[in-house]
Structure formats: structure tokens, C-alpha cells
Amino acid sequence: MKIRIVDAFTDRPFAGNPAGVVILDSGAFPGADRLQLVAAEVNLSETAFVHPLPPGGEADWALRWFTPTTEVDLCGHATLAAAHVLHTTEVAGGTVRYATRSGVLRTTAHADGTLTLDFPTAPLKPVSAPPGLTAALGVAPLSVHDTGEQVGDLLVELADERAVRTLRPDFAALASCSRRGVIATAAAEDPADAYDFVSRGFFPAVGIDEDPVTGSAHTALAPFWSARFGRDDLVGVQASARSGLVRTSLRGERTLLTGSAVTVIDGELLAGL
């Protein structure tokens, strides 16, 4: 059985966010415990598992995502990685529909090699900073927003780009501040730069101290910054050590996330599922 490692939201290897991708031949997933073992072995922030569905239904493939420690409800970069593998191996092309724990999601492959994810827009609700958040981050936020049940993060606005890039959080303390993670963000320092905002994503509560590029977080970043800038189409840079670029297009209750991906490892899973 093939297993691939794909760098997502980047057009060059060893950047962006790496994800494992396993395409199953059977029409059903094996037990979650087996999928979790593979994800723990791969030991990346997420591993995507997909299998084909019978024709004529509302979706073409079934898709699940696992961190090394748990299954998650929504993952952008591993969805992009899975779509990239399906497209580049000519298993599926054009627009593909996936049945997931977050409903039916769609990806579309473009002629220039980029892919667009069609995800639900996260609802934003202003909230007070929970106890311990400022101490865990080491900096006081300008504003804090809850991103709803589906994403489960706190969106934390900081004063400027430098504050985001220089964060050194206390991960153990940060783990108790949200259901899934904390997204720190600020507007780009220089309007002449080729991006509009920066972010970083911290998810110690699900076993990931810092995620290199978090697609699902951009379903909250898109409405937040589109409201600030008065534009529906924006470019975000997730300023991790690996860095990655996400183009966001706000379409009401849906957010389109566009990026590139590169396969860096193509191997064989010898332990059967």
C-alpha cells in the first residue's frame, strides 16, 4: 500500500506543512486504532486517509485525518495533500468531493498546479481572553475571538507582525486555553509585501506544539481580515520555521483556500491495515 509525504501550501520541498497521505483500495476504513497507529508512526501533524466511494452519491471519496495522538474534525493542509496525490497520480482530477466529519468538502485542481479547498467559514465571536492566555503567550492580545465548534481555536490578534514572529509560548500552559489550539495573527508590516497578514498556529492540546501551516485556521483568518481590509481575496503567510502561503477567498458561508503542494516521499506501507 502506497504512503506519501506531501509538503502542502508551498511550491518547493522542505517548506510548508508536511502531511502523510494513504490511499486505500477498499471501500471502507479499517478500525480507527489501526489508522491511529499509522499516524503515530508517520509522526507528522496530520496524516490523511482516503478511500473511494460508490458512484452516484454526494461524495466521491471518504476522508479522515489523524494527528499522532487523535482524530480531528477538520484539516486543511492534509486535505490539500490528499487532493494533490489524487491529481498527480491521475486517480482523480478536476473537482473532487470528500465525505468527512465536517460534511462534504470539495477540492479543485487548476492548470497551474495549484489546488483550491472549499471549506465552511468559521463563525467568529469576540470573547474575553481566558485565564492564563496572556501569560502563556508572553504578550497581551489586542482582541480574542472564538472560532466555533468545528475549528475549535482561539483567534488572537497581536499588535504587529513582529509580535507574531517572535512569540515563544509556554506550550504546557497554552494547552488549557482552548479546545484545539491558538492562532496568533497580525496585519503584514509592509503593505508592499506580497501578503496581507501573518499568523502562527499552536496546538499542544492535540499533540502539536506549533503547526507549520494550518489550512483550517484560515477559515477563521479569512473572515477576520476580510472585515478589517474590506476585501474578500487575501494572501496569508503562516510564519513558522518552514513557512507557507495560503490564498483566501471569502464567499459568505464558504471560504476558498488555494495553495500548492509538492510530493517529497513516495513509499510503501509494509504493515497492512
Strands, count: 18
Which percent range describes the beta-strand content? Answer: 35-45%
* Largest sheet, strands/sense/barrel: 18 strands, mixed
Percent in helix? 10-25%
Average pLDDT for all residues = 95
By secondary-structure content and strand pairing, the structural class works out as alpha+beta
How would you describe the shape? Answer: globular
Name of the CATH homologous superfamily of the largest domain: Diaminopimelate Epimerase, Chain A, domain 1
Low-pLDDT ranges: none
Distance between the termini: 9 Å
Q: Helix segment count?
A: 7
Q: State the order of secondary-structure elements, H for helix, E for strand.
A: EEHEEEHEEEEHEHEHHEEEHEEEE
Radius of gyration: 18 Å
What is the secondary structure topology, with strand pairs?
Elements: E1 2-8, E2 17-23, H1 32-42, E3 47-52, E4 61-66, E5 71-72, H2 76-88, E6 95-100, E7 103-109, E8 115-120, E9 125-126, H3 133-137, E10 143-146, H4 148-151, E11 153-157, H5 161-165, H6 171-174, E12 181-187, E13 197-203, E14 208-211, H7 218-229, E15 233-238, E16 244-251, E17 254-259, E18 261-268
What does this protein structure show overall?
- The protein is α+β, with helices and mostly antiparallel strands and 273 residues long.
- It folds into 2 domains: 2-119 and 258-268, Diaminopimelate Epimerase, Chain A, domain 1; 125-252, Diaminopimelate Epimerase, Chain A, domain 1, CATH 3.10.310.10.
- It is built from 7 helices and 18 strands.
- It has helices at residues 32-42, 76-88, 133-137, 148-151, 161-165, 171-174, 218-229; strands spanning 2-8, 17-23, 47-52, 61-66, 71-72, 95-100, 103-109, 115-120, 125-126, 143-146, 153-157, 181-187, 197-203, 208-211, 233-238, 244-251, 254-259, 261-268.
- The chain has an 18-stranded mixed sheet that branches.
- A hairpin with an 8-residue loop joins strand 1 and strand 2.
- The longest helix is centred in the first third of the chain and has 13 residues, at 76-88.
- The protein is globular and about 50 Å long.
